[in-house]
Design goal:
heterodimer, A: 206 residues, alpha/beta, Rossmann fold, 7-stranded mixed β-sheet, 5 helices, 26% strand, disordered N terminus, B: 119 residues, mainly alpha, Arc Repressor Mutant, subunit A, 3-stranded antiparallel β-sheet, 41% helix, GTP-binding (chain A), P-loop_NTPase (chain A), Gliding_Motility_GTPase (chain A), hydrolase (chain A)
Chain lengths: 206, 119
């Protein structure tokens, strides 16, 4: 999960090597609380086994505002899981899972820079984390879709109830997914891309 | 998360300080993103610092900064400093991500949609 370093392979497997023609990459960020299924979603669509990168928060790297709510320590380490999808011979898409809680927002600094958009992954049993995340993304002007990961044991809410509970504007797509399934996770990314497409066509819609 | 008693998998923060020669990243403004692709121009050269040599080995085909960080087990900020050295010495090439100013770009989004359809 977010803070457990998985065993680290020494390097990419031969079949995981990107072609020499890979010219540029883009990012999509998956945001959500612990245990909501970020890593599961990344893993189900990734062409490589999800990898883990660690980052430290040190005073040098973080704006003063971002330290609010973080324990006063000289440095804090957080791990992010990520995966990769080769879009074509030139373009590579990276998916980064990042914790949604406010105390980890310092990670967002470099993460959202240049990101295409975000998926807010929601567990209906714990909606509270999502409020802050959605508010923060709106503030930063990051386009996002909301995906409800359907846990079998979670209460099933009609989508319009959830939309109201999350105070989500009509324009923002809200979808249900099963993060364990590749096609379902793919459809979440597709929903984000279609949304981005609509924003690009009619920028005022944002 | 924060666990002051435990350092990095293969060392302590002090060791990281040694690896980067005392420099802290990502202040070098090398403009490396997590998804900047790195390609080595050759194999590792004799006499290289082990971490530099490891990067040269990893980047025989294009690899993102995040992947380099993951495979080396070093924080992105440290990897950024090491890559800055190799870039300055012209040992590696970097391919920056699609520029934020170009986003959202219809052609790019359509390419991603096409790519996802094939999954």
């Amino acid at each position: 999960m977010d803070f457990e370093s998985s065993e680290k392979p020494a390097g990419p497997r031969r079949e995981d090597a990107l072609p020499a023609t890979a010219a540029a990459a883009v990012k999509v960020v998956i945001v959500g609380g612990f245990g909501v299924g970020k890593t599961t979603l990344v893993g189900s669509v990734s062409e490589i086994r999800p990898l883990t990168t660690e980052e430290t928060m040190t005073q040098a790297g973080v704006g003063v505002d971002d330290i609010q709510g973080v324990e006063r320590k000289s440095s804090t380490t957080v791990a992010m899981d990520f995966g990769r999808i080769s879009i074509n011979e030139e373009l590579v898409l990276y998916l980064f899972g990042t914790p949604g809680q406010q105390r980890f927002w310092f990670l967002w600094h470099g993460l959202f820079e240049g990101a295409l958009g975000a998926v807010v992954l929601v567990d209906t049993r714990r909606l509270e984390v999502s409020f802050d995340v959605i508010g923060r993304l709106e503030e930063r002007g990051v386009p996002f879709v909301v995906a409800v990961n359907s846990f079998p044991e979670a209460p099933q809410h009609p989508l319009d109830e959830l939309r109201a509970a999350l105070d989500l504007p009509e324009s923002v797509p809200l979808v249900v997914c099963d993060a364990r399934r590749r096609d379902s996770s793919r459809d979440v990314l597709m929903a984000l891309m279609r949304y981005l497409h609509s924003l690009a066509v009619t920028p005022e819609a944002s | 998360m924060s666990n002051p008693g435990r350092g990095w998998e293969d060392g302590t923060p002090e060791r990281l300080y040694v690896i980067t020669g005392g420099r802290s990243g990502p202040l070098q403004s090398t403009s490396l993103d997590l998804v900047t692709l790195i390609i080595a121009r050759s194999g590792p050269r004799p006499g290289m610092q082990p971490e530099h040599a490891a990067i040269m080995r990893l980047c025989q085909s294009p690899l993102s900064v995040a992947e380099v960080s993951a495979y080396l087990g070093l924080p992105v900020s440290v990897v950024t400093v090491l890559l800055g050295d190799l870039l300055a010495e012209n040992q590696v090439l970097s391919r920056p991500p699609v520029a934020p100013a170009q986003l959202p770009d219809l052609a790019l989004i359509e390419a991603v949609i096409d790519g996802l359809r094939k999954l």
